[in-house]
Amino acid sequence: MIRPRDDVALMEGYHSPQLEVSVRLNTNESPEPPPAEWVGELARAVEAVDWHRYPDRAATRLRAAIGALHGVGPEQVFVANGSNEVLQTVLLTYGGPGRTAAVWEPTYALHGHIARLTGTALAEGERAADFSVDLDEVRRVVGDARPSVAFLCSPNNPTGMVDDEATVRATLALVEGVDGLLVVDEAYGQFAPWSALGLVADGVPLVVSRTFSKTWSMAAARLGYLVGPVEVVDELEKVVLPYHLDALKQLAGCLALGHVAEMDARVARLVEERGRLVARLSELPVEVWPSGANFVLFRPATVDGADVWQRLVDRSVLVRNCSSWPRLEGCLRVTIGTPAEDDTFLDALEEILT
After folding, report:
1. In the predicted model, is pLDDT for residue 194 greater than 70?
2. What is the pLDDT of residue 301?
3. What domains appear along the chain, each with residue ranges and CATH number?
């Protein structure tokens, strides 16, 4: 039997446990469905799809609609099957054998995982003690590794911390100095107080990736995109497989962009609920990190985190066990759910810890 590449054989896949529980707060999905009007619009639009024809290879309408949302032209937008395919295409285009990607841990595990899958070497630095970006460490890693691609995740997954504009600008200058590309992963960007989208411009080696999975309540659709310089988008289009974005997905994205007000209201509700959840957590014996996302990282102080995770599962509540991630021993991450879901989680946690 043929064997996979030696490096693939040694890899562990990216996994998030899916268990049958009453309250699922482990994958940062929206707790609310998309608007019923959108569902109806999509159902009606499907009737007009020419299923015997390939979809629009360039996803022209969808790219134009996303561009209009962000004040850029469609030529600055790249769309794909979830933001993970966006990241994969970036690394297939600008990474690969003989090139290096840089990350600063703890951060989104798929940045490093996709780098390895594409044969890109990985340079790993560390964040500061409070999990903020340490610019001295950025300077060291960029200077030593001279990465072709560098990743910032803001808000950072799994810590929830937001990189301020000065930090992103300083990192961009360092990466640009070694002829690299800076990727700012804003999968949770709508929950944060600012966005790096305003820094994107032709000639600037910066791209920002986003997803419809979180704030648009469309995790099932697997739709993501990138906003970047025209010259970068042009190169990505050379690499991605032809007709990779199906007609249904393009329709779903276009129609969702007609419901911006509903999305904004949903985000506002989740931000308010995040504040309530953090306030309750602060009354319990846990360490809590500030979050600009739709999740919160915390570490129980009196009971081992893995034990807390299992005891929550025993109470039919599922959160993410982050204990195996770099520097996150004993840490758990909880997605912001509905008030009822969050109360169930908080009551169960209080029972376990007190």
Report:
1. yes
2. 95
3. 6-34+261-353 (3.90.1150.10), 36-258 (3.40.640.10)
Place of tokens 């419901």: 259
CA 279 – CA 291 distance, rounded (Å): 12
Rounded to two decimals, the pTM is 0.94
Q: Is the confidence at residue 116, as pLDDT, over 60?
A: yes
Mean pLDDT on 29-33: 96
Tell me the mean pLDDT in the region 220-241: 97
